[in-house]
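Q: I have 105 residues here and want to know how they pack in 3D. Can you give me a structure?
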Amino acid sequence: MKKTMTIIGVLALCLGLALPALAHSPICTCYDNGDGTITCEGGFSDGSSASGVNMYVKQGGKVLIKGAMNADSEFTFKKPTGKYLVEFDAGEGHAVLIDGKDIVE
């Protein structure tokens, strides 16, 4: 019985060490289309889709535009005037903030 518990303990330890390798980081980039709109493309470092990920365009702490990545992991919105932030929000620990001044054609 003790040998079985030791084997289970070793397997649990190996599994626990392997889980961080399964983690994936969010990736999001936005560009100015030159026609008054901005398009953001997103995904994850493991190659998985960002379809359905919440997107927020914020100005002065308020949400101006709320949406989600489409089936192609893209989100297009009308460019606000003034300073703004774009947030790719895939949940706790999986968010990307992009300052509007960094979005160029």
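Q: Anything worth noting?
A: Confidence is low (pLDDT under 50) at residues 1-21. The radius of gyration is 20 Å.
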